[in-house]
């Protein structure tokens, strides 16, 4: 299973801190001073679980399973058409859609390196003035492989090994309703307590 260790650790830290403040609030608070902080704590912890802990990517010989914050996507290998890494890891399916993998983002630094490298020309092809290359612009080698690129390469290698048979099921994308319900409930609770 692929996931961001830093995001998972950050989410766990938020949950621990949230539990501490929740206990302190219950012991010390009463009335609005109890319910408003509790609603905020529940909302923050629910967002931490949804955005940082839940996202993951799992593969097996039959499919790719993408767990994004609010959606779960299952893509049979026979339906995969491409695996790339642009702004994040992306899986293209034969239904014409591209599915971003929240758990494997590409850092801003890696994006800048890629854009910078993409803007340069290989001096082996032509010079700046279109001559033989005597006044060629210095060629910058490609940046080192980042995490998203490495995962994309691993998945493409695995995809080549499994050799999926035709068919294999349909692409399925469904909402993760528990997270949506908890976040909506915390927001409703916060709004209700604030209005009262």
From TrEMBL:
The chain crosses the membrane at residues 6-27, 34-53, 175-195. It holds the Pfam family bPH_6. Residues 124-146 are annotated as: Disordered. Residues 54-103 form the Low molecular weight protein antigen 6 PH domain. It comes from the Bacteria. This is Low molecular weight protein antigen 6 PH domain-containing protein. Keywords: Membrane, Transmembrane, Transmembrane helix. The keyword Transmembrane applies. InterPro entries: CFP-6_PH. The keyword Membrane applies.
